[in-house]
Amino acid sequence: xxxxxIRFFVCAAALSLAATPAAGQATxxxxxIFDTDFVIxxxxxxxxxxxxxxxxxxxxxxxxxxxxxxxxxxxxxxVLRVLEIAKRTDIPVYRGANMPLLHEKxxxxxxxxxxxxxxxxxxxxxxGFAEKPAERESAMDFIIRTVNANPGEVTIVAIGPLTNVAxxxxxxxxxxxxxxxxxxMGGAFASLPDGAGNVTPxxxxxxxxxxxxxxxxxxxxxxxQLTPLNVTRKxxxxxxxxxxxxxxxxxLTELVRERMAARFEKDPNAGGQMYDQLAVATLIDPTLVTxxxxxxxxxxxxxxxxxxxxxxxxxxxxxxxxQQMSVQHDVxxxxxxxxxxxxxxxx
Length: 347
Hints:
Elements: H1 16-19, E1 30-36, H2 44-53, E2 58-65, H3 72-85, E3 93-95, H4 107-111, H5 139-149, E4 154-158, H6 163-171, E5 181-185, H7 205-209, H8 211-218, E6 224-227, H9 229-232, H10 239-246, H11 251-266, H12 276-284, E7 289-298, E8 309-312, E9 323-331, H13 333-344
Parallel strand pairs: 1-2, 1-4, 2-3, 4-5, 5-6, 6-9
Antiparallel strand pairs: 7-8, 7-9
Helix pairs in contact: 2-12, 5-6, 6-8, 10-11
């Protein structure tokens, strides 16, 4: 692809029946840190958060923001406003990295999707800036403190560049062993079907923004699952699903209407892939997807393959540090989208 599709399409979720425990059984909620390059709807991070907020299987301990789709400052302002609209200001928000570890702005970066390099003041979200500010503690310190206080219990859901995760791992020796799981939306794998990139011929946006951080995080030995472009290319959000969502008339769905109505009025055939939405959904219900266990590494060498994820069934020369993890490549889309709509439209 020569241009990145706008990453706004609604977050998918797991089928509620599949995610519901049998009678008499109790399932503890996943304790998660929601790490995000958030932008208010129609971006996909915001829909992924709506799904998480409406899913009792997930307990959001905090939200950490990072530069990616836009600046870290905009991510912070927008997520605070969405939490205010959702009446969930009990969830704390922590500012993270405002730039990748090493990747600097280039003419190419400025010409494609994403404003991770921006230092412009964030625009006011719909309805104005939230009354509640972000916490004073940094995202990295919050990640370290929370994981250390809950060893083996906290899953990091990383749906933006992995800068915050990498910085926390560098700052705190032994942290990787105390993280329960790392759920990542990112990557594209030539060894699986539909493996092309969306920002360069082989690189996916989230990984490409900070390949050095992705390499650190994915080599750390944390049990990990990846939702790459291979599987998101099998999803599509359309006006049919938009109409079902905005018919519910909740504060969040009214925000969706306000932000997306003009797009569908202009082009009723508008639609696109679902990215971060699927990553969140498959934490709730892993049976939504088919996965392969691959050894995964990231090319952090400057050149035509910068930011490319590489996956193989066994280690290879040059990829000796690659770790084995679950990589998704197919999805039961009808279950996925129906459950998402049911969750997001809950009162």
